[in-house]
Design a protein that fits this description.
It contains 8 helices and 4 strands, in the order αβαααββαααβα. The chain is mostly helical. The model has no long low-confidence stretch (mean pLDDT 96). It binds adenosine-5'-diphosphate (ADP) and shikimate-3-phosphate. The site of shikimate-3-phosphate has 12 residues, from helix 1. This is Shikimate kinase.
Length: 160
Amino acid sequence: MGVGKGTTARAFAKKYGVYNIDTDDLIESKENKEVKKIFAKKGEAYFRQCEQQTADWIEKCVKGTLISCGGGFYKVGNIDKLGTVVLLEASFEWIHKRLKTAKNAKAKLAKRPLFSKEKEAKRLYNEREKAYLKVADVIVNVENKSLDEVIAEIARKCKV
Ligand SMILES: Nc1ncnc2c1ncn2[C@@H]1O[C@H](COP(=O)(O)OP(=O)(O)O)[C@@H](O)[C@H]1O
Ligand SMILES: O=C(O)C1=C[C@@H](OP(=O)(O)O)[C@@H](O)[C@H](O)C1
């Protein structure tokens, strides 16, 4: 949540001339609702079902595409069949500070329902840390690096 998956994927796609898609965007367009509204109206369990459906579609239909996703997407049952998983790593404090001090911080936090309570977000971060490492094929620490440095490191580690 907020580590920069979408931003990094867009910059990577532009630099390396590949297409990128984002699972939250796919879900929002299929449901015709923003993620925060899906959470509010239908609940988290429903959103997770949407993520699984998206993962099934990706497995069946998507090749040669850069995919960014939500922070809970790693839970889908077929993550290992979707391609190379790149984990963008940063401490909770660093991510939180960047979101909190951004120009439109309020909107950035409101967009992420699971980030609305700091204590709960931190608990989630701690809970997920090990699981992320388990599913990751490539790990890139993003703290205090420029976007160019991050995408160059991803390209090198993924042999693009
Ligand atoms: N490399 C970066 N440098 C500066 N700001 C960034 C960078 N990556 C992301 N951000 C900012 O951090 C916020 C979260 O990024 P985003 O790509 O939406 O994260 P995620 O997709 O992981 O939730 C955005 O507001 C974005 O502008
Ligand atoms: O971590 C999570 O469970 C979620 C992260 C969000 O995406 P970002 O990681 O882009 O904030 C979004 O998919 C949804 O709010 C749930």
